Amino acid sequence: MLAPAAASSKLAILPVTVEGGISESDQAELTKALTAGLERGSFQIVGPEDVLAADAEASKCNNAVCYQNIAARTGAAYVVRAVVSVKDRDYSVKVELVAGADGKRLAQTQDGCEICGVVDASGLIDSAAATLRLKLDALSKGPASVKMTSNPKGAIVTIDGEVVGETPIERPVVPGKHLIRVSEEGFISIEREVTFVEGVNEDLNFSLEKLPSRLPGRRFGYVSLGFGLAAIGGAIGFAILDDKPYKLGGKCSTTYTGDPNKPYNNIPGSNSITGNDECASLWRTEPFSIPLAIAGGALLTLGIVILVNSRQKTKKDGAAATARRNLPRFGVGPGSVSLSGRF
């Protein structure tokens, strides 16, 4: 958690970190611009030189443990770190505001310019400092905090487009209006705009809905299963009938006589030479049996998948509905009442 409001007006500024070719005098100019921009705020400044005196490795600081150490040694509630990247004559400026108590990033601004110089980069730093001043002024009135949980756990949380961690998570936030987004693979993301008030601890819970299945309902599954079984039965019947004598009512409609002068007899009967029925035509059902078998197998598989999927979804939806009924909906803070929940 952040330091109390009475102690939150002290700010430690780290030496500007430069990535790329730049002279020491230009680097000093950028550090001066950052310090001057922050000094216009209503809080006490611990300048880069004093920070280096307290911690000789401060210029290399870039992790939570280091930020906490610097805050402890300087007595600051917050730490500011600026990184300037230079490539040819292109400048990129990133300024971060970090909570000294836990080393977590509270705010970040990033900007850049192409084909510019140190003067332009100093202007970018001054603009970033102005943005951070507004956030620090809000923080000086007393911190707000938020505790976020989700069903399922482990969902990714972003605040104003910045990833801050995974649920469950508890962290301080700058008072004011923020856009919170909770997302998890396979679930519908939730976005919620929340206004945080100084001194109020918000307790938010997000119940993520699973992405809807694209498969049809159970009724279609039973229909598909029925047609699949019928198609497979038809395929088996046609396969058995293939190459069998073409008989209707137990008799051949056209009989092969065996006589080369009169090979076919259109009158049902037996072969005039052998005395046995020899049908002139055979069933040719293979072109029907193979497609029916393929279609039947596909419909049968689809029906089984739909029925299994709908059964699992029904169980999960019932469990999720039971969990949602037990979620808290209201939160109370010092001197205020806040409403939380799905809306």
Set down the secondary structure blueprint.
Elements: E1 10-13, E2 17-19, H1 24-39, E3 44-46, H2 48-54, H3 64-74, E4 78-87, E5 90-99, E6 105-113, H4 118-140, E7 144-151, E8 156-159, E9 162-166, E10 169-173, E11 176-183, E12 190-196, E13 201-207, H5 218-241, E14 247-248, E15 251-252, E16 255-259, E17 262-265, H6 286-325, E18 330-333, E19 336-339
Parallel strand pairs: 1-3, 1-4, 2-4, 7-13
Antiparallel strand pairs: 4-5, 5-6, 7-10, 8-9, 8-11, 11-12, 14-15, 16-17, 18-19
Helix pairs in contact: 1-4, 5-6
What this model shows, in words?
There is one protein chain. This protein is α+β, with helices and mostly antiparallel strands. 35% of the residues lie in helices and 30% in strands. It has 6 helices and 19 strands. The protein has helices spanning 24-39, 48-54, 64-74, 118-140, 218-241, 286-325, and strands at residues 10-13, 17-19, 44-46, 78-87, 90-99, 105-113, 144-151, 156-159, 162-166, 169-173, 176-183, 190-196, 201-207, 247-248, 251-252, 255-259, 262-265, 330-333, 336-339. Strands 1, 2, 3, 4, 5 and 6 form a 6-stranded mixed beta sheet that branches. Strand 16 and strand 17 form a beta hairpin. It is elongated and about 110 Å long. It starts with 9 loop residues before the first strand and ends with a strand. Residues 1-7, 269-275 and 320-343 have low confidence and may be disordered.
